[in-house]
Amino acid sequence: MAHKTLGVEPDLRAQLLQWRKSFRREMASTLAENAQWSAQAWEQLSHSVDQLANGEAYRFHGWELPDDHPARVLGVNVDFILDEDDVLRVFS
């Protein structure tokens, strides 16, 4: 499967990781009234946090890009992949 390379993004992994951690924390606290739901949300959202933190390839939607990222012009419904070397590609 061919992927259009957009460039090396050394800061994007850190930005995505920060956002995913914040989102995980917010969702778990929103569901805190039900300990089972909160724990399940934390567990499910930890998959993406772990991928980013461990330097693994991470597939994501365009709406996860920072608002000022140049690839946003491709649309929020476009899928991207940030590979192990922090190369950003359109996922097709």
Rg, rounded, reads: 14 Å
Helicity range: 40-55%
Count of the separate structural domains: 1
Portion in strands: 15-25%
Residue windows where pLDDT falls under 50 for at least 5 positions: none
Number of extended strands: 4
What's the number of helices? Answer: 2
SSE ordering: EHHEEE
Shape: elongated
Strand order of the largest sheet: 1-4-3-2
The pLDDT mean sits at: 90
User: What class would the helix/strand composition place it in?
Assistant: alpha+beta
Largest sheet: 4 strands, antiparallel
Cα-to-Cα separation, first versus last residue: 7 Å
Question: Could you explain how this protein is built, in words?
Answer:
The chain has 92 residues and is of the alpha+beta class. The chain has one domain (4-90). The chain has helices spanning 12-30, 35-53; strands spanning 4-8, 58-61, 79-82, 87-90. It has a four-stranded antiparallel beta sheet with strand order 1-4-3-2. A hairpin with a 4-residue loop joins β3 and β4. The protein is elongated and about 45 Å long.
